[in-house]
TrEMBL record:
It is an enzyme of class 2 (transferase). Its EC number is 2.4.1.25. Keywords: Carbohydrate metabolism, Glycosyltransferase, Transferase. The gene is malQ. GO terms for biological process: carbohydrate metabolic process. It catalyses: Transfers a segment of a (1->4)-alpha-D-glucan to a new position in an acceptor, which may be glucose or a (1->4)-alpha-D-glucan. Gene3D superfamilies: Glycosidases. Belongs to the disproportionating enzyme family. GO terms for molecular function: 4-alpha-glucanotransferase activity. InterPro entries: GH (IPR017853), Glyco_hydro_77 (IPR003385). This is 4-alpha-glucanotransferase.
Amino acid sequence: MSQGSAAERRRAGLLLHPTSLPGGYENGDFGPEAYRFVEFMAACGFTVWQTLPLAPPHDDLSPYSAQSVHAGNPRLIALEPLLEAGWLQPDGGPQAGEDGWSYRQRRLIEARHGFQNAGNRGEYNDFLAQRQRWLDDYALFQAIRAAHKQTAWFDWPRELRDRHSNALAAIRRQFGDTIAQCQFEQFLFYRQWAALKQYANQHGILIFGDIPLFVGYDSADVWARRDCFLLDSQGNPEVVAGVPPDYFSATGQLWGNPHYAWEAMRADGFQWWKERIRTQLTQFDLLRIDHFRGLESYWEIPATAKTAVSGQWRKAPGDELFQALRAEFGHLPLVAEDLGIITPAVDALREKHGLPGMKVLHFAFGGDAENLYLPHNHTVNSVIYTGTHDNNTTLGWLEEVDERTRNHIFDYLGSSPKQMPESLVRAAFASVAQLAVVPMQDVLALGGADRMNQPGVAKGNWRWRFRWDQVKPDLAGHYRHLLTLYGRV
């Protein structure tokens, strides 16, 4: 595969969402701690930083059901660069009773006024022109949400829900300041992320992003392009996405995302997907397609169902989609998240388009020697993880598994509980898989209380953050030794 792909040479990466960085207000951001993290990675010898999607979440903070596939999360905008630019003046931080996000929002409004007074709008105008195809709809979507107490678009008055031109024109006139603020925040997001990505690339680190297969129902994308989704005339989904019963849930997972109107997408040459991928390629060097198997066949659940059990598999035009994308972009630096119920047809689609698959060591033990996740069964064109953002930390996982599985783990690895999680990390690094990725929690040897996400649990996820005092002074040197030992530096 070509330069910048997951498999052109042996590499190792760290999995950490920017919200999990220290610093910032309420969550990590693109400020000084992000640059310090890049320097830490480089000192360790890691050459891939894997994030979760950077899109704007809803109140549950999940980046996998966001308000836009194109926009960036304004919670990640750092205030320090705005002070340096002179667009903000120093203050004493959040006021009494003001939470971190409210404070950040207030300061971003102040920054726009400071930016306007500075007078140099060339870069900003260029950004608006380049992103117009999605930014206009997204800013309008956010203005209407703000005017209707953040209610979902499908509960708006009919003329706004159905995008009547007179109603939208009235919103633009009445809430022009809100629209301009949203556009300015997207300018800041992309400006700061581009600078951070450039800094990482200069340190030899590729940025590895994540594309959720499905789109959040309450999103600018679905509201603006209802023709691309299986919705009725009132905008209600006819069927929704999820997965059947699996490792994570006995009743499956009912995600609730609307399904794509694949026939309509095929008719215009998958233009919606081309625009989506074009945006992601400006943000990342590598891209993981979450729930890749849904591009071969997807689990279709009646919109009225209470669980995912009553769904059925439907065929998806994944092969045609990838052919169209390759014709548009040439080489695609993609990784397929091929976990769950994987059929020969899913494997054939991934292999036809040369996409690396995923191996997760948490899924390797408790069975027999044929388990494909065991290191001796790995393939070169794959990405190996100890666990992902949806798994427990390795130490938390060890507390959950049964005695037979625990015995298998330590017998296979030739290790003991005191050597975990490092013995599992070493197994990942020793794998023939070209890319090995380890969550920051496993590097820091943290337990289940530091888990990022628990699928099927609605509250309390996506909030984990690490602290620099958890990083031992010799940690970078130790990891550089390990990555050199296993040929990943």
